[in-house]
Design goal:
The structure is a single chain. By secondary structure, the chain is mainly α. Helix 9 runs antiparallel to helix 10, helix 9 runs antiparallel to helix 13 and helix 11 runs antiparallel to helix 12. It is globular, with a radius of gyration of 27 Å. The protein starts with 7 loop residues before the first helix and ends with a helix.
Length: 371
């Protein structure tokens, strides 16, 4: 049956409906853009909670109730940070201040210690430029001290917000996992359960392993700097530990910083060459022995995919984004593999894994309530 001519009233209604739909989409996108900072904090907090969840589940499996397990993990993390600040903070601040004050003198002495630098300085004026840059550092710090204090307060407020949200997510993680499973139809619940478990396991194992590897890198760097008598060993080791968190290129950045400071402060041989060689050897041990043993369950991705994921994450959220992008990409790969697997036959549905006591208790409570 052929439709008659479209009337002007129908055209108006279609145009009005389309305009309202576009306006609603625009309002939704505008609202999301307005609260993007809050959404980013929620995402980071959820990521932190998922990262700590394996440790909490380990305590739960050893007959510790989840609220007490969360409190124990919180006390452990805060205690470790407090001990780190008390033990490392004063010498770190002192050595960092000495580095800023003594840098012009070290640069000025490069002409005497390095013929190569003396030739480059005479040809391109490199020494004068570095001296001007080093001399401007204290003045820049003094001029931007108020802004730095404001940035510190903003960072402190953001950190406290993330900690509080992470505690809420961590305390309610079993219910969140259970709700994600129950949203799916009965036939798909086992698949959803495996996807959620895969995401939690990969994110948690990657983050815990990455932090441990970075601590080892910082300790090894400090030992090497002490052996070659490079000054400012503590701040340099901290730089190595932080940059080691960055996938693929972070260890090289930390090594370059240590080599440059060693060359300026002590000399090219043996300090700079020695510390670079020391960190190069450690990188091979880390890449081929430490990382495979700590992260064998978390990553199964080619190096190019890891690099691209890290770059995209860094462009979106900086260092935090680079850390989050790698396990998220690995999780996405595992989820795609799970979705390509065949569904279980009709009538086969598992509401909760038998090896997870928390989800088992939740399922039993829901069955009792339904009865």
């Amino acid at each position: 049956m052929r439709r008659g001519r479209v009337t002007s009233g129908e055209v108006f209604r279609w145009a009005a409906a389309g305009t309202c739909g576009v306006a609603l989409v625009g309002l939704g996108l505008t609202a999301l853009w307005t609260v993007r900072t809050v959404l980013a904090l929620v995402l980071v907090s959820l990521f932190v909670a998922v990262s700590l969840d394996p440790a909490v589940r380990w305590l739960v499996r050893h007959r510790v109730r989840r609220p007490y397990a969360v409190a124990m993990i919180l006390i452990g993390v805060l205690g470790s940070l407090t001990a780190l600040v008390i033990g490392v903070g004063p010498p770190l601040v002192g050595q960092a201040g000495d580095l800023v004050q003594d840098l012009p003198g070290y640069i000025a002495g490069l002409d005497e210690r390095s013929p190569v630098f003396r030739e480059l300085s005479a040809r391109y004026g490199l020494g004068d430029r570095l001296n001007d840059l080093a001399a401007s550092v204290p003045a820049w710090i003094a001029a931007n001290l108020l802004n730095m204090f404001q940035t510190f307060l903003d960072a402190l407020a953001t950190t406290l917000t993330v900690v509080v949200l992470s505690l809420y997510f961590l305390a309610d993680m079993p219910r969140l996992r259970r709700r994600a499973q129950l949203i799916a139809p009965d036939r798909h619940r086992e698949r959803v359960r495996r996807i959620v478990d895969t995401a939690v396991d990969k994110v948690g194992s990657y983050m815990i392993g990455n932090v441990l590897v970075s601590l080892i890198a910082g300790a090894v760097a400090y030992l090497g700097l002490a052996i070659f008598e490079v000054p400012f060993a503590l701040p340099l080791a901290l730089i190595v530990a932080v940059t080691d968190l960055i996938p693929l290129v972070g260890a090289t950045l930390g090594m370059a910083v240590c080599g440059i400071v060693a060359a300026m402060a002590v000399g090219m041989w043996p300090a700079a060459v020695g510390i670079v060689g020391w960190l190069l050897v450690y990188q091979q041990v880390e890449n081929y022995w430490i990382v495979p043993r700590m992260m064998r369950r978390s990553l199964d991705m080619p190096s190019l995919a890891v690099l691209l994921a890290g770059l995209v994450g860094a462009a979106l959220l900086g260092l935090i984004g680079a850390l989050m992008a790698i396990p998220i990409a690995a999780t996405a790969k595992a989820v795609i593999a799970e979705l390509r697997a065949p569904l279980p036959p009709p009538g086969y549905a598992v509401d909760h894994p038998v090896d997870d006591p928390e989800l088992s208790v939740l399922a039993a409570e829901e069955e009792a309530a339904a009865a």
